[in-house]
Amino acid sequence: MKPMSTVKKLFAVALALVMVFTLGATAFADDSENNTLVYATSTFGQKFSPFFATTAYDMEVVDLTQAPLLAADRGGAVIYNGIEGEDVDYNGTDYHYDGLGNVEVVQNDDGTVDYNLTMRDDIVFSDGVPATIDDVIFSFYVLVDPTYDGSSTIYALPIEGMEEYRSGMDARGNVIFADGEGDGYVENELYTAEQYDAFWKYYNEESGAAFAQEIVDYCISNGYNAADDSVAACAANWGFELAEDATAYDFWNTILEAYGGDTAEAEEVESAGSTRLGLTLAALGAEFQAGVSTGDGAPNVSGLTRTGDYSMTLHMTQFDATAIYNVGFTVAPLHYYGDEALYDFENNSFGFVKGDLAGVKAKNTQPLGCGPYVFDNYANGVVTLRANENYYKGAPATEVLLMQESVDSDYVPGIVTGTYDVAQPSINDATVLAIKDANSNDELVGDTLTTVLVDYRGYGYLGINADLVNVDGEPGSDASKALRKGFMTLFSVYRDTVINSYYGDRAAVIQYPISNTSWAAPKPADEGYMTAYSVDVDGNPIYDASMSQEDKYAAAKEAAIGYFKAAGFTFDEAAGKFTDVTETYEVMIPGQGTQDHPAYGVAVAASEVLDSLGIKLQVNDVGTSVWNNALESNTAMMWAAAWQSTVDPDMTQVYSSANAHGNGTNSNHYSVDDAALDELIVAGRSSADTEYRKSVYKNAMEIIMDWGCELPLYQRKDCSVFSSERVDTDTIPSDMTPYWGWYAEVETLAVK
């Protein structure tokens, strides 16, 4: 987890690999000079595969050349009847959605669940070959192969027979790694002495530098360092100080030193996407990625049944609310990525030799699918896509789409000068000024540029560790909750002023610990909706509509006093302060020592009030490494950070007691340990009823807030910028969202 104001971890959402949201198409044309759209993006990783793409920029190519079995709407929700199409309301408007397939979810009396998947019978790949359910089955088996090392985690779903199919085989490199260095090579049938030595030579001598270099490449590709692409400059963005002439080896050694030589922790916290093991296997190639038999394994996944040429069923042993987002597998062509001679469903052969994905990976740089565009080539930093005349939605407006590598700082100037037509720049003060300067009306939408702002699918927050901020060592007591609510009440009242000053209209204060982009997010019109930490210790409202901002500050101070009294602190009425608070509390803000963070002003304002009350709150503006170390070691009392949300609002990772106190994934940094909350989390995962789940998560969020461990701060904006002069702005998608971006309706997006 990196601070939003500095860097973001490289991530690859499994959902993106299996559910590329509804796109569009065009038609081939030789004379396309005047019917070309140029999109400015960042550096490609050149893995344009629906199976192995990792960077967000490679995934954009996948989105435009492939298509998933199931479509999704503007809110990210699955369209169950894509063949017939569905109308779904968004912001008061009904929008029609269709896709390649349907899904029927059947919850059986014994607790098992069947996902019946049906695809259209008229889908044709861009090379003219018809698509059938066998292409879907092939894609499924690639993603669940024991040696699969891409980003999809479909194999983690409770599909009957999955564990049996994946057991008894592993990649040769993984086996060598699991055996460890020990006393050297021991003769066996799985790998040779030469392979053993080659693996450990690279892992011990090169993988650390490769790990650090990936961070460097990520910083460069995201434009964090302007013109300075040195290792030292990139390391600074990651919170490390290096000499100007530092190498990737120096960077890795510095990272390792920061974690006391603990390579596992260093990799987990500082990763830009890959582990040293993964980088070693990637560097050594197919020989080490190939599967070797380590025991008995099933010949197939028994839970997958082929029910027809265009249908299949997945049988799961239990309901999992996240499954629906992962069963819309990419309809990737068996005849291209696999070997048709090796496909025989009845005899457990699925288009490739189990454990050998070399043939699939060989096509990583040359994608082919049934999406709206056909991949032409990648050359000189430009991906050229040409319209797919076989796309099921028919020929759209734009014939050629060029995806050109660039840096963020050049996006807006490039559109103004005519180099680019579309870009998605970081929305900051400089970007806003540049856009307004380019338009004669000094607005974000004008005669030169058209800007569309959408909520980012995540949110910023302030957190408190209940294990470190409590009364008498009892984190869950009423007194401990009152103590934390005292802090949160003061933090909360300064949010509007500070966030508005920092972001302007590019962010909004939110009241619940969930992204506003989620279907489960409470809305102002909902019954019981309220401002975060806006009641006093007796449950009475702190504010009323007649109050000025200064009145609200004063009211919050009085309410905080009430909470601190309930925590057991002694208040001297004459002096107007607490007389027995000896502990110094600390809040960590990852502003890299520059105070450039949206939470910094909130924390400072609250600390000044607390100081007047006799309570010391130390605001520490720290670097990323210090901040990360404190979070991962559970030593941060209070901190600021940001979450990135998934489509499904499952709370297990962040709030489950199983992940608190350093246990499980150690991802519950709040140390909220509440049996009632755990029950609600399980209930939310166990139902397919959206309205029921929404009410369950609302109750869960109220428990989280009652613990006083999280204060939602802001929902910031992402932006897309179009040339008003060269793009027909009437064809830009209406009501864009994080799940319905600029190319969601690319079949109708036209140039002038």
Explained architecture:
By secondary structure, the chain is of the alpha+beta class. Helices cover 31% and strands 17% of the residues. The strands form six sheets. Strands 1, 12, 13, 14, 15, 16, 17, 18, 21, 22, 23 and 24 form a twelve-stranded mixed beta sheet that branches. The radius of gyration is 27 Å and the shape is globular. The two termini are 42 Å apart.
Could you give the topology of this structure?
Elements: H1 14-18, E1 36-41, H2 56-65, E2 86-90, E3 93-97, E4 101-107, E5 113-119, H3 133-143, H4 162-166, E6 169-171, H5 172-179, H6 193-205, H7 207-221, H8 231-237, H9 248-258, H10 263-270, H11 276-284, H12 286-289, E7 291-293, E8 304-308, E9 311-316, H13 334-337, E10 343-344, E11 349-350, H14 358-361, E12 373-379, E13 382-387, E14 400-405, H15 408-417, E15 422-423, H16 429-438, E16 449-455, E17 458-464, H17 478-493, H18 495-503, E18 507-508, H19 549-566, E19 571-572, E20 577-578, E21 584-589, H20 600-612, E22 616-621, H21 624-632, E23 638-644, H22 652-655, H23 675-685, H24 690-706, E24 710-723
Parallel strand pairs: 1-14, 1-15, 21-22, 21-23
Antiparallel strand pairs: 2-3, 4-5, 5-9, 6-7, 8-9, 10-11, 12-13, 13-14, 15-24, 16-24, 17-23, 17-24, 18-24, 19-20
Helix pairs in contact: 6-11, 7-8, 7-9, 7-11, 15-16, 17-19, 17-20, 23-24
